[in-house]
Amino acid sequence: MPAYITLGTNDPAKSHAFYDAVMAIIGWSVQSDFPGGWRAYSEGGRSDVFKVWVCPPFDGSPAGVGNGVMLGLPARSRAEVDAFHAKALALGGTDEGAPGLRPIYSPTWYGAYVRDPSGNKLGLYFEG
Which residues contact 9 (CB under 8 A, 6 or more apart)? Predict the structure, then answer.
């Protein structure tokens, strides 16, 4: 069974529009869609790989974000990092670190950081 992570949202329609657009930039698409605002994304929409679920909390309580929690996703190029960051901001995300080299990790680590409209932190990186 592949691993997954769940990101909470209080506005599934807004979050799904955000993730539909930004995930497409890195070759990810909707893998599953369930009633109640549950949507899973994976590379190429495949069911046999790591998934990111974006949905309201199962217990019915409001979604919140965790301090220090971040989802890091790989990009295939620096251009994808730039495009992901720009699209995220255009769709209501907030900047947490503009695209650029992060030599603290390695001389070729290129990344960008955003928060989605629900406040979840995302990192996108390319090394090479």
Answer: 15, 37, 54, 55, 56, 63, 116, 117, 118, 120
Q: Which residues sit opposite 30 in a β-bridge?
A: 41
What are 49-102's pLDDT values in tens digits? Answer: 999 999 999 899 999 988 889 999 999 999 999 999 999 999 999 999 999 999
Which amino acid, residue 26?
I
Assigned token pair, 54: 């974006």
Cα–Cα distance between 41 and 51 in angstroms, integer?
6
Q: Which residues of 98-114 are buried (b: 16+ CB within 10 A; e: fewer)?
A: ebeebeeeeeeebbbbb
Asked whether 59 and 72 are in contact (CB, 8 A), the reply is no
Tell me, yes or no, if the pTM score tops 0.85.
yes
